Amino acid sequence: MTPRDIAEAGRLVRESRYLIAFTGAGISAESGIPVFRGPGGLWRKYRPEDLATPEAFKRNPRLVWEWYRWRMELVFSAKPNPAHKLLARLEEKGILKAVITQNVDCLHRIAGNRRVIELHGSLRRVKCTRCAYKAEIRAPPKEDLPRCPICGSLLRPDVVWFGEPLPEGELREAFLEASKADVVLVIGTSGAVDPAGLIPLYAKKQGAKLINVNPEPNRYTGIADVEARMGAVEFAKKIAIVLGIGEASLG
Ligand code: APR
Q1: For residue 1, what pLDDT is reported?
Q2: Residues enclosing ligand 1, CB less than 6 A?
Q3: Which residues are identified as catalytic?
Q4: 38-69 b/e with 16+ CB inside 10 Å = b?
Q5: How far is the CA of 96 from the centre of ligand 1 (A)?
Q6: Cβ burial, residue 179 (10 Å; 0-12/13-18/19+)
Q7: What does the pLDDT look like over 26-73, one tens digit per residue?
Q8: Which strand (E) or helix (H) includes residue 101?
């Protein structure tokens, strides 16, 4: 990434007619929430594909809840970082039209973004495995195996597990936003998980330019129009200067 690339990213953002952001775990890494893949991405010896499935929950709900309680602790104590705040400032200014996120930490909303499409649910909600009960939570459940207050069945986090469909409305909206976008800021995702990972590819096919912010190569490397090979916070601070947003407002 050269200063020319940052200038080019700034130009694309400034001249965009319909800018959207597509984010993954990497945007929250510097808020203290570990990513799923790559360095530091594993919890004990488990991959997310071993824990975030209905089968894993059936087999060993205690283990799955242990993992989620640990992640919930991190999420509940995390604060938005300058990269989340950059997206909030860009929406305030009318430049950014929507954030499509795979994250379940709600940090985009907490940072102030209003138009947030959450594709994979939220760790700040639980739902019943049997009945329609769903609830917002303010802290991780205390019990090893939390139970539904209505029917007594096991509760689970209200997130999308591997093998489960994404919420239909959100998925439809996300692709609609991608079809309208002329520039997509892709921040902190490996792009490894479909269908979400297809969204930037779809936008690109419809003619959008991609700005790919990631310290490592990912699925979009090679097709992105600007490769920002750096962490989300460094990128946010640099592009804020180019856009005249003022680093202080990201603090
Ligand atoms: N800034 C930006 N990107 C970063 C940073 C950082 N500081 N640190 C790490 N990254 C990048 C990594 O290089 C990696 O490409 O963030 C990406 C994180 O990738 P994943 O862990 O695969 O996270 P994500 O893309 O969100 O995963 C998609 O997989 O397990 C499921 O449902 C889960 O929503 C998640 C989905």
Answers
A1: 62
A2: 24-26, 29-30, 35-38, 41, 48, 52, 102, 120, 188-190, 192-193, 213-216, 218, 231-232
A3: 120
A4: beeeeeeeeebebbbbeebbeeebeebbebbb
A5: 21
A6: middle
A7: 999 999 999 998 877 778 788 888 999 999 999 999 999 999 999 999
A8: strand 96-101
Helix (H, G, I), strand (E, B) or coil at 23: strand
Q: What is the mean pLDDT of the chain?
A: 95
Which CATH number is 1-32+80-120+166-251's, of 3.40.190.10, 3.90.1300.10, 3.40.50.1220, 1.10.10.10? Answer: 3.40.50.1220
Distance CA 21, CA 210 (A): 10
pLDDT digits (tens, 9 = 90+) for 180-237: 999 999 999 999 999 999 999 999 999 999 999 999 999 999 999 999 999 999 999 9
The helix/strand/coil state of 192 is coil
